[in-house]
Specification:
By secondary structure, the protein is mostly helical. It has one domain. Helices cover 64% and strands 0% of the residues. It contains 5 helices and no strands. The longest helix has 25 residues.
Length: 151
């Protein structure tokens, strides 16, 4: 008998573990916030965590399925679509998705009481979406010395 390594079987969880765990954490923060008082330290923390982990899940899934031309974090954009408008939206689908959903969060927030339990969370989501959109846009042209994404 030899000590040859058998091929490791990689399953669904292995291939999608980051998305699964980040989504599970987001779900936990939402459930905990539902049963907490937002005026306490823990309640405030859970509300902020919802916005932060929502942004993480969007970036994880967005960079997996969507494109952003000239962004180091995105998959490479190959080829062109015949229709220039569709080509633009395809090449910038990550920023387009963040912008459209961010506008949706902003519209929802404008209709809510900013001091209500969920109004504070939605306000944090608007901030998170603005930050994500800004970073995706900025990473297209700006670099950071020592960052592997800037190479």
């Amino acid at each position: 008998m030899t000590d040859a390594k058998l091929p490791t079987r990689r399953g669904f969880f292995h291939s999608h573990s980051l998305t699964i765990v980040a989504s599970a954490l987001l779900t936990a923060w939402i459930v905990l916030y539902c049963f907490s008082d937002p005026n306490t330290h823990w309640g405030s923390f859970f509300g902020n965590a919802i916005a932060d982990w929502s942004g993480s899940v969007i970036i994880i899934l967005g960079t997996k399925f969507l494109l952003e031309y000239r962004s180091a974090e995105s998959r490479r954009v190959r080829g062109h679509l015949r229709n220039p408008v569709l080509d633009f939206f395809w090449r910038h689908s990550l920023l387009t998705f963040i912008s459209v959903t961010g506008l949706g969060w902003a519209l929802l927030f404008s209709k809510m009481d900013a001091q209500s339990k969920w109004g504070q969370v939605v306000g944090n989501l608007v901030s998170e979406w603005a930050q994500m959109g800004g970073l995706v846009f900025l990473t297209k042209r700006l670099i950071e010395r020592g960052s592997k994404e800037s190479n």
